[in-house]
């Protein structure tokens, strides 16, 4: 364990083995941090944070900061729960929940590049990469294996399905279906075929999702009729996940605009 003399580590925090704290870093009371974690210079882990093993908090990053929410009661006991093997690079901010006894949730094996922001009450899954200055507004549901390009912004309450790729500076105020590429303002630019292939999905399932995507976005046949057809022709697991997402409850509506340029 190495703690720089200028670091401020509360005696009421629970710290695992092999912990490292850089100059002027802060860990507040009530925090729990697992094994093999590091907080770089001026990183902050504020009250209500529960962090798993093998996580890195970069310089100036702040975990469990107060949310950008007018009228928020700072006395509420809320926080952030983070899994294992996550990297938060320089000046990443993760805000705590606005609801008593609730937490913003982040899974495992995620990589947050410099300046990325995770708003209050977001649900982030596993194996996601958020490039520089990506913004997740409050209550965003980001699932698994996504790559969000630099400067991309997602409005509050938006859902982002598995294996989504977002173009840099994309702006999304509607839900983004799994396995797609989103671009521009609420545009769907195509299917994330490269990501699906690299993930090792069977060729039959890849063919099925292409058929489902084509019918919904290129032929505009409507999700309900495509779902009925997919059951008759058995397009596989990926198509089923894609079409099920379109049927889930949505507060923002699903992005259906086909981006042609």
Features:
29 strands, twelve-stranded mixed β-sheet, 27% strand, UDP N-Acetylglucosamine Acyltransferase, domain 1, 261 residues, 17% helix
Protein described:
The model has no long low-confidence stretch (mean pLDDT 95). The chain has four helices and 29 strands. The protein folds into two domains: 2-139, 3 Solenoid (UDP N-Acetylglucosamine Acyltransferase, domain 1); 196-258, no CATH class. It has a twelve-stranded mixed beta sheet with strand order 1-4-7-10-13-16-19-22-25-27-28-29. A nine-stranded parallel beta sheet has the order 2-5-8-11-14-17-20-23-26, with no helix packed on it. It has an eight-stranded parallel beta sheet with strand order 3-6-9-12-15-18-21-24, with no helix packed on it. Helices cover 17% and strands 27% of the residues. The protein is elongated and about 65 Å long. It is α/β, with parallel strands linked by helices and 261 residues long.
